Amino acid sequence: MDWNTVQKYVTKLRQRIYRAEQQNKRRRVRKLQRLLLRSKANLLLSIRRVTQQNTGKRTPGVDGLYGLTIKRTYQAISTTAKT
Q1: For the chain, which ranges sit under pLDDT 70?
Q2: Domain residue spans in the chain?
Q3: Is this structure's pTM higher than 0.90?
Q4: Pick from 25, 45, 49, 48: nearest CA to 37
Q5: For the chain, percent helix, then strand, then coil, each to nearest 5?
């Protein structure tokens, strides 16, 4: 997985939202926000943040698991993407 590409896509989308807000283009802001929420790149980035970059990654969650390996991370991505 090329995380730099995913990060750049999400960052540019956030910048587009910010610029649209500054220009008072409410409809465009709503459309871009919807795009960001439904974006698979945003989902991937959030799962990566929780499983790899988060300082509390060694704290078990409700499921009792912690310190997910790369394999488990991709399993989490695949199960989350299906729902």
Answers
A1: 53-68, 80-83
A2: 3-82
A3: no
A4: 45
A5: 70, 0, 30
